[in-house]
């Protein structure tokens, strides 16, 4: 009686390399977009360094001198920023969906690969819907304009405001946490003046 052992297939196929390459390319594009956004980063924290307690939604400014780091744009420049950011966001989402669809309809994927691709498509579409909902809620709460980026367990919000205070930061954080489940320390709020 022979005992057959199932061999583990460790061969990396062309599709695996292509998917990994496209994922790295998408990540690099998002990182470059973040670097060139030209906005001040305001980080919310549960506790301030050097203090024992902090108020919910309390803002901790990253730079020591916040006035030097504030981006002051006139109305048309900030409107232009938000319009360009929306176009870039839509373009990257469309490219992601197009890549996933090309793999899904490529024809030579296994059922496991198709299941993973389907889950990725569902996640992207869910993120798009949630981002739009959060943006609309923030606009309804009185912010002139807002953009939301959700990726995994992080959320980044860009808001147009004359000056972000603790109450507004708490309001943004509360809106985000009402729609998605992310750790509070993974929420980044960026202010455009």
Mean pLDDT: 76
| CATH architectural group | Orthogonal Bundle
Name of the CATH superfamily: Stage III sporulation protein AH-like
Largest sheet: 5 strands, mixed
User: What structural class do helix, strand and pairing data support?
Assistant: alpha+beta
| Secondary-structure element order, N to C | HEEHHHEEHE
pLDDT < 50 runs, ≥5 residues: 44-55, 61-70
Alpha carbon gap, first and last residue: 77 Å
Shape by Cα distribution = elongated
Helix content class: 40-55%
Under CATH at level 1, the class stands as Mainly Alpha
**Could you tell me the radius of gyration in angstroms?**
21 Å
Strand content: 5-15%
Instruction: Enumerate the strands of the largest sheet in spatial order, edge to edge or round the barrel.
Output: 2-1-5-4-3
CATH topology: Helix Hairpins
Task: Write down the domain tally.
Answer: 1
Number of strands: 5
Quickly count the helices: 5
Which tags fit this structure?
alpha+beta; 193 residues; 5 helices; Helix Hairpins; 5-stranded mixed β-sheet; 15% strand; 52% helix
Description:
- The protein is an alpha+beta fold and 193 residues long.
- It has a single domain (14-192), classed as Orthogonal Bundle (Helix Hairpins), CATH 1.10.287.4300.
- The chain is built from 5 helices and 5 strands; from the N terminus they run αββαααββαβ.
- Strands 2-1-5-4-3 form a 5-stranded mixed beta sheet, sandwiched between helices.
- Helix 1 (14-35) runs antiparallel to helix 3.
- The longest helix has 30 residues, at 75-104.
- The radius of gyration is 21 Å and the shape is elongated.
- Residues 44-55 and 61-70 have low confidence and may be disordered.
């Amino acid at each position: 009686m022979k005992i057959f052992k199932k061999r583990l297939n460790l061969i990396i196929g062309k599709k695996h390399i292509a998917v990994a390459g496209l994922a790295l390319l998408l990540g690099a594009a998002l990182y470059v977009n973040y670097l060139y956004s030209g906005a001040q980063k305001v980080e919310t924290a549960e506790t301030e360094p050097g203090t024992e307690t902090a108020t919910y939604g309390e803002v901790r400014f990253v730079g020591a001198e916040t006035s030097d780091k504030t981006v002051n744009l006139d109305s048309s420049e900030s409107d232009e920023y938000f319009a360009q950011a929306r176009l870039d966001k839509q373009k990257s989402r469309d490219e992601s969906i197009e890549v996933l669809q090309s793999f899904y309809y490529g024809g030579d994927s296994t059922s496991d690969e198709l299941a993973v691709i389907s889950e990725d498509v569902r996640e992207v579409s869910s993120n798009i819907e949630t981002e739009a909902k959060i943006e609309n809620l923030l606009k309804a709460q009185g912010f002139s304009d807002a953009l939301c980026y959700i990726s995994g367990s992080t959320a980044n919000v860009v808001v147009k405001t004359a000056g972000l205070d603790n109450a507004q930061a708490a309001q943004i954080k509360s809106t985000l946490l009402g729609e998605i489940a992310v750790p509070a320390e993974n929420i980044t709020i960026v202010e455009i003046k």
